[in-house]
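User: Show me sequence and structure for the first protein, then do the same for the second.

Assistant: Starting with the first protein.
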Amino acid sequence: MKKLLVLGLVAVSTLIASSKPVHAGTAGRGMVYSADGYANVRSAPNAKILRRCPNGSIVFTETGYYYKGWLRIFSDQCGDGYMHESQLVYPEANVQFISRDGYTNVRSTPNGRIIGQIATGRTAEVYLRKGEWLMIVSDDYSISGWVHQSQVE
């Protein structure tokens, strides 16, 4: 009887584990980018909103978890929870800063106010392109914003 109970529990747990939808491309990191200027972080897929996560925030996604467009996310800026995949963009390229001035200005929007600088020689990931402007995140995640494409290679 004990053996039968153990086998039954193993079968049920295997069935539950295998019924969780998995999407191969969900592991890694993404950046929040939404027309609203933020994305909602929820307690579960399509459930109660816990908080808003502003555009430009970096989130890490749980390896192997994907359910009907929902991802389990972790973030220093936004906390933990669930976010819909439509609210994220992913790195498309790596670049190195080449400005002869020794730094490149990082801006809040394309041609917008300067929010910081990044040193020549440093690298970053490109998440979006708008004309000649690139939305980047620095290699150490210390700054994100827009830079002109002439400042990178």
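Switching to the second protein now.
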Amino acid sequence: MNLKHNIVYCRRIQKDLVDPEKLQATLTDETLNEPCGLKRALEIVALLEAQLKEMNPNLDSISEYRTKVSLYNERVEELNKITQQRDDIKRQLDEFMAGFNAISLKLKEMYQ
């Protein structure tokens, strides 16, 4: 997975804390635009409070999320270091092979 994908995934998790479908069903444009009395307003408030109680957020998931993000960041740093080491070794190999091929070519010319 790349970094952009994981950032998008983390933002999506944060958005999922509130169920937009339930909220949209309760707070439709028609419901919000129609004039309502005190009784209707209290019903909407009661409905929203009931939905809020149903959510039961798991607060342990926040600490777990932070732990996983820090672990992910550590692994990304480790991957970047290893990738840099690999690139350096590959560059050294390419330089060596260029020199080796040049010497090999000169030896072939000398012994022919």
